[in-house]
Design goal:
single chain; alpha+beta; Beta-lactamase; 10 helices
Length: 313
């Protein structure tokens, strides 16, 4: 597995003043994660403030969460996958596991950008240079400071949920206040979002036309912008559903350690190409004991779901 960069994901709900110390690249997710202790110092310094307001946040990969119980629960992690072929056929995804709600962590950044673009379309304008300066690192390098700025601009949960009604999502609830990473979603809703971005791309002539809801909310220009950024993910974040793909993929990952349990949410969504066929894939998980374990679970589940989906091809 390629090394994984832990940007500000570890400071997902931290005050912005603490974000810079957590944006340095961490070593490989397989090796040397304990060397990120410098980031841990900044987090631990803010424990008192966080506890006073009950904030949930992710600790650095190398450190136990400051507020985790002495013996964190060690139950079996949950995982759900959803797969939808783009090359005709069914317009409903195939689900693997219960379609339950999970924390989004940073996969919500695709939804934030889609909302921003939809709002700009409504105003009859293109994104400003400043908006692009936030949007591009938010997707490509999972920059949290950029996400904070755009989350405020779109109107936080209210703006997100208003846009999601038009994008076809039905089961996604925006996170409270500034905590966009605690948005709750389902695997099937993530497929609905991906359809709003990718539906029609790579679909052969004569195949079934995408639904009106998915194809008409975002313009082709807006969809192409999101697609392009999702194909330019920083190389050390190129894990997740891309493990089930060939050379072509577009994705966004999210990871978050919960301070109440010390366990990890690890998610991956995107479009992959397998043997010339295009698939939308969403894998959501929680309850892993480490980020390593969560990444392994997500990639294994993605491979199994794609193997099942492609068995007849």
């Amino acid at each position: 597995m390629p090394p994984v960069h832990i940007p500000a994901e570890a400071c997902l709900t931290m005050p912005q003043a603490f974000s810079p110390s957590c944006t340095k690249p961490a070593p490989s997710v397989r090796r040397g994660r304990r060397r990120a202790l410098a980031c841990a110092g900044a987090l631990l310094a803010s424990v008192t403030t966080l506890l006073s307001v009950g904030t949930a946040h992710a600790a650095p990969a190398s450190a136990a969460p400051a507020t985790a119980p002495a013996t964190a629960p060690q139950g079996k992690p949950r995982v759900t996958a959803a797969v939808l072929g783009l090359d005709g056929g069914s317009r409903q995804p195939t689900l693997y596991g219960d379609d339950a709600a999970y924390d989004t962590a940073s996969i919500i950044k695709v939804d934030i950008l889609a909302t921003l673009l939809l709002q700009a379309q409504d105003a009859g304008r293109h994104l400003t240079a400043q908006e692009r300066a936030h949007a591009e690192p938010m997707i490509k390098s999972s920059d949290n400071a950029a996400a904070n700025a755009l989350w405020r601009q779109i109107g936080q949960a209210t703006g997100l949920e208003s846009a999601n009604k038009r994008l076809g999502l039905t089961a996604t609830k925006g996170g409270p206040g500034a905590r966009w990473g605690l948005t709750r979603t389902t695997a099937s809703d993530q497929i609905r979002l991906l359809r709003a971005v990718f539906d029609g791309q790579g679909t052969p002539s004569g195949s079934k036309t995408p639904s009106k809801t998915a194809s008409s909310a975002l313009t082709e220009e807006s969809k192409a912008y999101i697609r392009t950024l999702m194909t330019r993910i920083q190389s050390d974040q190129a894990w997740g559903v891309s493990a089930a793909s060939g050379a072509q993929w577009a994705l966004k990952n999210g990871w978050l350690q919960r301070n109440t349990s010390g366990l990890w949410d690890v998610n991956s969504v995107g479009r992959i190409t397998v043997n010339g066929h295009h698939y939308l894939v969403a894998v959501l998980s929680d309850g892993s004991r480490s980020m390593d374990e969560g990444v392994t679970l997500v990639e294994r589940t993605a491979r199994q779901a794609i193997a099942a989906a492609t068995a007849g091809n």
